[in-house]
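Deliverable D4.2, example record:
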Amino acid sequence: MSGMQIFLVSVGGVALVLGALIAVMRIRTIYFGSSAEGVVVGQSTSSGGKVHGRIVTMFNPIVEFHHAGKKHKFTSSMGTREAIGNGTKVTVRYLPADPDSSAEIGTSMRMWGFPIGMLLFGGLFIGLGLFAPLK
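Output generated by the structure prediction step:
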């Protein structure tokens, strides 16, 4: 195996492990978690790269919700090109034992988009590392 193949397989392996860990956390959140109503209070922005020569801005909503009499705030792990307006009410899914790090907006795309993307990315890199003819 060449150095490039080892690199590709290593990066793919890390992505697969991260995707699997996040998927397990999401499954735990669905089966053992709670839900609450949250409110979008802001946006975190990042660059989504260039499309047709223009820089695309990605918006990750910042959401507040209440659990056990305390206010919790989190930033969604999935950004979109369109911002969700401040004051918009959303369903939040979270684990009651750890609401700060397990919370996510309870739509299927936001719950599953990142872990599925990481699993696909990892599989692609492992496939390239193992089966692509690199010289």
